[in-house]
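Next comes the chain:
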Amino acid sequence: MTTDTAPRIIVPARWRIVGWIMLTVVVVLVAMIALTRNLLLVDVDRTANLNVAQEIEEFRTFAANGVDPTTSQPFTSVERMLEIFIDRQQPGESEQLLAIVGQRTHRAVGEMSDGAAAQGTVLPDNVELLDRILSSPNNSGIEDVAGGKLRWGRVEVVAGEGESGNLLVANYTAAGRERVGETIRTIGTVALIGLALTALIGWLVSGRILAPIRQVRMVAEGIGDNDLTSRVPARGRDDVAALARTFNAMLDRLENTWEVQRRFVDDAGHELRTPITVIRGHFDLLNLGAVDESERADTMRLIDDELSRMGRIVNDLLILAKAEQPNFVQPTPADVPALTLDIESKAQMLGDREWQLMEVAEGTAEVDTQRVTQAVLQLATNAVTHTQPGDTIQLGSSYVDTGGRRMLRLWVRDTGPGVAPEDIEQIFERFNRGHHVATENRPDRPGAGLGLSIVRAIADAHHGSAWVTSAFGDGATFGIDLPVIGPAETTRRDESQ
């Protein structure tokens, strides 16, 4: 078994485009030239026939109405009538009139082509041709002669005294055919020049059309494992520009996906390094037998707690990674009072606090209820972390106008230590716990600093925003504002709280 390893000849697209254009133009030009030539030759033959018919018709009119100029009487001699008629005619180009009476011949010859005269085709020099025409039973016909065809017509004239003669009209097509040849050669020359211009224009235009495609190829070749920033210039509104924009959009998605993956790996490596180090150190102590049974139980509890914290970190990172995807939230019409009451009911299970529902917005909104619940409960969990048992935590929902947009606001207010002014701008960033945030209430689970990042990701996915207001040392209010798509009606305050 043999394998053909010969390299394939790759013809560039630019050459293929120009080649197909040239092939199409050549076929059209050849067809046009051939058709033009046939039409011109047909016109030469038709003109020759008309000229012959016209001369014969003029002779018949002359024979019926003409008179002898010397006697002013009708002709009595066939020869005299033919002679006078011949003398008065001005034959056209390549036309010849012969008056033949017995052995006598009178003729009128127009301008003949050089080829016809040189080869002896002019009557009556060509005796054989003349005899063949005179002996023909037909009154008209076509004879092949040098350079073309001879079209002829004949009228036999008979007088009462038995005198007879013939008028022969001959028209040579050689000159007309020569002019057709010159015309076709001129058209051919112009066609060749046009073909060259077409090739040049096709080469230039195809280059401009294919330039964005070459740029796509060059950009694709230049993309590396760690560089997806290159883009193809997209100009105009044609299909090639649409291709460039589509390619750039694909690169945007790839870059976004790559960035999400890189950030996930970096964040995971950054945050998981500490618990892994703690777990490995305690396992080393267990393997060395450096702890007694009571310390072993505490060590195992600590290891379990660190593993749980690692699980929470990975879960939070996965949520943040999903937040970069377009289907992270799936908004549907939601009843805002029911959503608020459901969140308040779930929040009461988070800790022994004095929970107060301060206000409830009435109406509907287009939101992802599960993600919104997750975000508000995260804010509630954050409030629980920074308050003491029995402290008051308030929450609620309302409608506000922000930047000319109608927004649904869900908020949680606590009485904890608050947020320092320098931390407010960055508290929603990943792994930011705040420099002055007290966590002494949960020293065993200080958190990874991802909860508020998840809240902001959910708000951003709804095209909304996450916010915080705080007086340091006097509590803080965290909330999210979500655009209202649908009827938003009123806000009802719960007076029972």
Remarks:
- The mean pLDDT is 80.
